[in-house]
Amino acid sequence: MAVASEEAIREVYDRITSNEQLVLLDHFGSMPIDSLMNKVKHMVLVEGCKYIILDHLSMVVSGNETENERKELDMVMTALASFCAANAVHLIVVCHINRTDSHQFLPPKGKEGEPFWVNVRKESARGSAALEQCSWNILAIEPEILPDFSRGRVRIKVLKTRFGDSLGIADVFTLDPDTWEVILDNSTQDSF
User: Fold this and answer.
1) CB 23 within 8 A of CB 49
2) Are strands 51-54 and 90-93 parallel, antiparallel or unpaired?
3) Distance of CA 1 to the CA centre of its chain
4) SS3 137
5) pLDDT in tens, the chain (192 residues)
6) CB-based contacts of 5, cutoff 8 Å, min separation 6
7) 8 A C-beta contact, residue 74 and residue 128
8) How many CB atoms lie within 10 A of CB 69?
9) Distance in angstroms (rounded) separating the CA atoms of residues 13 and 51
10) Beta strands in the chain (DSSP E)
């Protein structure tokens, strides 16, 4: 596998950071909701961010001293959704699937030794119903599991779109192992 040279990495890093296109918040993960909202507000209102990626939501509330993680997730999603509705910002919230759907990573009965797709549903999201209720769009990233457990294809599935009417498989792609370039796989659109 090829790796970019240190000079190439430095050139890209300098290009992104020199014109203030990227703002990073480095933190452990867990933080009170008001602190998270203050940071989001700063990124949007002071730094001018139009897109924010929050990776991942459960980690934000995991270390907070709360007895009800679902209620905390409800509160943070409501605060984030309200802020996005009032401001010109697109917030991408990463959420992992819950453990009750871990059976999705096992081959279907009678199909052992064949490739299969993990089928993610809206209900698969770890946390609370607010993840679904407060989101404008929900996209799932589903891996293809190969019999030898090597990296298969990946598909993006639209689970919710508030202002559209197209749900289901959006794209299938692979990653180039050397460059990590996304390569669309248009040959399999009818095989779902």
Assistant:
1) yes
2) parallel
3) 26
4) strand
5) 567 789 988 988 888 888 777 787 777 778 888 999 999 999 999 989 999 998 878 787 776 666 777 788 888 889 999 999 999 999 998 888 777 777 777 888 888 899 999 888 888 777 777 788 888 999 999 999 999 878 789 999 999 998 888 899 999 999 887 777 889 998 765 454
6) none
7) yes
8) 15
9) 18
10) 51-54, 90-93, 116-117, 137-145, 151-161, 168-175, 182-184
Neighbour count for residue 179 (Cβ, 10 Å):
11
Residue tagged 């802020």 (tokens): 83
Please name the amino acid found at residue 56: H
CB-CB neighbours of 67 under 10 Å: 6
This prediction has a pTM of: 0.79
Q: Which two tokens stand for residue 117?
A: 């797709």
Residues in the chain: 192
List the structure tokens of 174.
């692979």
Instruction: Give the separation between CA 96 and CA 141, rounded to whole angstroms.
Output: 10
Q: In Å, how far from its chain's centre is CA 18?
A: 27
Torsion angle of C-alpha atoms 105, 108, 113, 114, degrees rounded to 10: -90
